[in-house]
Amino acid sequence: MSDATRPRLKVLAAMSGGVDSAVAAARAAEAGHDVTGVHLALSANPKSFRTGARGCCTVEDSHDARRAADVIGIPFYVWDLAERFRRDVVEDFVAEYAAGRTPNPCLRCNEKIKFAALLDKALALGFDAVCTGHYAQVVTRPDGSRELHRAADMAKDQSYVLGVLDDRQLAHAMFPLGDTETTKEEIRAEAAARGLFVAKKPDSHDICFIADGDTQGFLAKHLGTAEGDIVDEAGAKLGTHSGAYGFTIGQRKGLRLGNPAGDGTPRYVLDISPVENTVTVGPAASLDIHALTAINPRWCGTTPAAPGPYTAQLRAHGSETPVTARLDGGELHVAFDQPVRGVAPGQAVVLYDGTRVVGSATIATTQRSTPGPSGA
């Protein structure tokens, strides 16, 4: 059974002020559910959260969400979760970069805010489900258990950032946009036909709490500057940097190295050591990863009982790659059928069985196809 065939529910629709969440709320109401709209105030200074089409959660977005709710004909509220967002998302983001890891704040927001803080409050107030504009599907099996699946339209699938949802959260999640193959242009046309002002509103992008899109500047403000060395795989100094947190595994641009590699090939970031404050660079071939270990696994349903073949996705807009995965205590060990690149500690690895999301975990270490500078 999909979202569209569920019985009448009391639904809390999270409305960001964008077109997707507005159409999702409208579809939920049209399906006969008792819908209430809510906008999450996630910043103590919301005017700072938008520059052009960047980000979300501004006063402007709150007004847009309210106007959409008025058109749909549903009650609307603004809930202040700024302190929880600061602690669980923004501070976590800064701490992860300080530790040399590359976090995904959208995934953390879904885990800690939209389907934890928001859902808990919704259930306490008597709501049955939280509705969002994510492109994914919750499917109910004959035995009553629920599964998270990719969206019907793979081009818009957002199941990767929902891979942190557990069975309890899936039982109260509703994604009205996920089971129809509708282009974004058609979603906008639907919004216009419903009289929703946000039909032509640009999509938000990048990190909502970094208003100008300058992640390195944001981190420098919070972590300060600390000059360190940029070295090659043999440890020879090639240049300096003003903060190891300003780099990510696989990065090519912005290294500012005066001398090219001896063979003229580009250099890429291979390793980041916050303790030694060094950044190691080298050739693209040294980025090849054949296995990883991930921690804090979260399962979208039943915990896998035995090692098995899956596919894995390593970033929000990445492709799938075949893997073999096994659990060992609280760790997930993933071996790739073919080497992959651009894998960094702190990222999430999300496992799939066909279109079904099995679960996710946070990458702790990687194993290179050729030995890395620190055995990473």
UniProtKB/TrEMBL annotation:
According to UniProt, residues marked as the site described as Interaction with tRNA are H134, Q347
Q: Where in the cell is it found?
A: Cytoplasm
- UniProt superkingdom: Bacteria
Binding locations of ATP = A14, M15, S16, G17, G18, V19, D20, S21, L40, G133
List its EC numbers: 2.8.1.13
Q: Enumerate the spans annotated as tRNA-specific 2-thiouridylase MnmA-like C-terminal domain.
A: 290-363
- Give the reaction(s) catalysed: S-sulfanyl-L-cysteinyl-[protein] + uridine(34) in tRNA + AH2 + ATP = 2-thiouridine(34) in tRNA + L-cysteinyl-[protein] + A + AMP + diphosphate + H(+)
Task: Give the main location.
Answer: cytoplasm
What's the top EC group for this one?
Answer: transferase
Per its UniProt record, what SUPFAM superfamilies does this chain match? Adenine nucleotide alpha hydrolases-like
The active site is formed by C109, C208
Q: Which InterPro entries match?
A: MnmA-like, MnmA-like_C, MnmA-like_central, MnmA-like_central_sf, Rossmann-like_a/b/a_fold
Record keywords, A-Z: ATP-binding, Cytoplasm, Disulfide bond, Nucleotide-binding, RNA-binding, Transferase, tRNA processing, tRNA-binding
Q: Does the keyword DNA damage apply?
A: no
Give GO terms: molecular function aspect only.
Answer: tRNA-uridine 2-sulfurtransferase activity
Q: Where is this region: Interaction with tRNA?
A: 156-158
- Domain (tRNA-specific 2-thiouridylase MnmA-like central) spans 217-282
The similarity comment for this entry is: Belongs to the MnmA/TRMU family.
Q: What does this protein do?
A: Catalyzes the 2-thiolation of uridine at the wobble position (U34) of tRNA, leading to the formation of s(2)U34.
- Name it: tRNA-specific 2-thiouridylase MnmA
